[in-house]
Amino acid sequence: MRQGEKSDMKTCLVVDDSRVIRKVARRIIEGFKFQCDEAADGAEALAYCRKKMPDAILLDRNMPVMNGIDFVKALRQEPAGSEPIVVFCTTENDVPSITEALRAGVDEYIMKPFDTDIVQSKFQQVGLIGE
Amino acid sequence: MLDTAAINIISAEARRRAGIAIPLAQTYLVEARLAPVARSEGYDSQADLVRALESSKDDRLWRRVVESLADHETWFFRNPAPLDYFMSDILPVLARIKARKAPIRILCAGCGTGQEAWSLAMLMQEQKARLGAMDIEIVGTDISRRAIERAQSAAYSQFEVQRGLSIHRLIEHFEPYDQQWVLKDSIKRWVRFERDNLLNPSEELGGFDIIFCRNVLTGMTPDARRHTLRMLAERSAPAGYLVLGKGETISGAGELYRAMSGIKGVYARTIEAARQAA
Lengths: 131, 278
What we know:
By secondary structure, chain A is an alpha/beta fold. Chain A has helices spanning 5-8, 19-30, 42-51, 68-77, 95-104, 116-125, and strands at residues 10-15, 34-39, 56-60, 85-90, 108-111.
């Protein structure tokens, strides 16, 4: 990486208790020229955000310690916690689950399984990347 | 595997019936598209299917083959800028010039599986209050019966509803049904779909105030493109508009349409129509 490039790059925190999914998601998002970090549950993610807010958070729902819904509620209470764009990423695809997540403060919603096209489309929807 | 002779037979018929251009580099696509047709028609291979086509001249089978080659992928709110421009800049002009009670008629020509027509319907539904008493008809046409049937079903897979569609629009306009997402009746009422060939369009469809024909000309031969643009001009209202896809131009039929200054890919039939929306 060239000097100075890192600070210009958008950042994304990938939060999922599955290492495999984190790896897959990370590779896709790095393809959009994001600098990525990972967290394995909501508590880890919250500790990360208290140090430095990322531009985007890709967030799983069901995780040990702190789940995605509790994390996003806690995040939105933090100073500057309204800044990150949170994209939920879950197998729960019923309307009540989607509504619950939107009320808790997520900006977009990916229903698993996902692929590059879907993540790209959702990142475009919320303005994280261009058309 | 199909040999060159077989590919040539298919290409010639696709060109004749639908104006489809198959570049040599894309002959693998012919094999991929013909595989499911061969299977469902009971042939062991694509080569067997082509042999049957040659000997029988079975028109139904030929149509099915050519339609499978015409099928193209699309998604909701694909290249949304011209859709937004239509809603904000062209629709008010049409509302002004239309005779009272005459509906504003919109054609999605080569609509494939229907996402563009449904996207327009979602915009109409969302801006219903602004439309007032305006009567609006959206018609989607495609050469492929299979695509039209899918469009009419208004049912899309989880994969399809996540491309181009925000989660807010998904829960506002769709209902989950049997592993799929189906458009609500409030959206369905805006659109109807008809099978139609752009090279030889049905008179019964009537005239249209705006025609969206996006990402269709790209797959055609230059002759078919010119012919299609002429046919669309005939289907257009005297002061109508035409919208082409990204990277598509009016070349070869420039005398029929004037490019709008404010936005790429949008054309007007007359100078007056171009000025009014600008």
